[in-house]
Fold this sequence. Notes:
mainly alpha, Serine Threonine Protein Phosphatase 5, Tetratricopeptide repeat, elongated
Amino acid sequence: MRRMPPPGLSCSRIAFLLVAAFACVMPGAAGAGMFDDDEARARIEALRKQVDTGQRASDERLGRIDERLKAIESGMPDRRALLDLAGQIELLRGELARLRGQSEVLANQIETADRRQKDLYIDIDTRLRKLEQGQEQAMPKPAPIDVSETRAYEAALNQFKMGSYSLAISAFQGFLVTYPTSQLASSAQYWVGNAHYALRDFKNAIVAQQKLIAAWPDSQKAPDAMLNIASSQEALGDRRGALKTLDELIRKFPGSPAAESAKQRMTQGAKR
């Protein structure tokens, strides 16, 4: 008797779907940026475990089906075995359908988290720049920014907004080389760090933000740079280092929005 594959998707196909679902988030890494979406990450992790469990169960059922098929092919037909085989195939079909649904849900949650985080990046930059403009009006106005500087900065920021993080890093680094004394230099360095974070290159994200704090300690981007450092440390598993950075942020910049976020994180961390 010719061995017939069970209906529905094969295990290798399901594995491919799961890998594809996880791969779709990597360019934008949403857990990413200056804010952690702990609740979304927890839901995604729980769903991933459910899918893994379902995958293992399907593999076990396929193994039992394969044994039945071998027994039938060896010339020992058994009506009971055939009925059992048919039942297992139906169960497997339902399991595969459930796994397909879960993988689609997982991909959707990851895409939603990535999109929400990208919106946060843009919103934060917009609010900070408005704050900077408000403070500039109350202070003696510095020399106006050259049009070419503004265009170069905006071009680099647009690469970030589009999710082209590697290009954004190159563009901002080029801006810093061309305009090292620009009023936008600290902001450019800040987005270099955030682009590294979005690429899940947490070590270089920390290095970039530390460079900002060292070169521009009074920059309005400094508090958020420290918050990004804490996020990177936590992503690397350095929970103690992240808490230390958050505590230092609160002490150095007590009235900043970043300090309020740091307090919330420390409170949430204490509850875990």
